[in-house]
Amino acid sequence: MTSSILAQTTASVSELRKNPMGTVAAGDGGPVAILNRNEPAFYCIPAAAYVDLMERLEDLELNQLADERKNQPVIRVALDAL
Length: 82
What we know:
3 helices; alpha+beta
């Protein structure tokens, strides 16, 4: 089965095993597709890129929630009532 490789840089599992930090560095801040028998097995990304990815995902989820709620009726509440 042919899979798309969603990274500019690739490395084999053997290369990753020999030099894990060098493999991550080869991606120059981006993902590295780790190949097993010329098929992507997983992606290796630096911690900073992972944090950015998680923040973007959270933003998308919050935007979707806001979009779902934008047509709900407004309920006015006095601050003293809280």
